[in-house]
Design a protein that fits this description.
about 120 residues; alpha/beta; 5-stranded parallel β-sheet; 5 helices; about 40% helix; globular; Response regulator
């Protein structure tokens, strides 16, 4: 049986997407706890003392690539289910994801409500 998702951490440099995702996700489930970071280093620091059920991680950010973020998580002994967030499905990224057990899939920006409902296990 799939673990219930209650806490979602977003790491993405696009603040407009944060606002849209927050609004849409809380419509699907108002009890979700959502955490948003534009800066991946701040997100890593947050994860030192906090947990989330799902990490939605942008592949390409100015400060560091999503893959570097995953390497840092791994080096700190942290495991979390990760969905990589991308604006285009690059076959190289899909290939790289196979090196990370934590990565359970890819999401394309902008996130569609049907996809988020599916991830949350909600009949839409």
């Amino acid at each position: 049986m799939r673990k219930m998702i209650r806490r979602i951490l977003f790491v993405d440099d696009d603040t407009i997407q944060h606002m849209i995702n927050k609004k849409n996700l809380l419509k699907l489930n108002p009890e979700l706890e959502l955490f948003f970071f534009e800066n991946p280093n701040n997100a890593l620091n947050w994860l030192e003392e906090n947990d989330a059920d799902l990490l939605i991680l942008d592949v390409n950010m100015p400060e560091m690539r999503g893959w570097d973020f995953l390497d840092l998580l791994k080096s700190r002994g942290r495991t979390i289910e990760v969905k990589m967030l991308t604006s285009s499905m690059d076959p190289e990224d899909i290939q790289m994801s196979m090196d990370y057990e934590m990565v359970s899939g890819f999401l394309v920006k902008p996130l569609k409500n049907e996809i988020m409902a599916e991830i949350l296990g909600i009949e839409n």
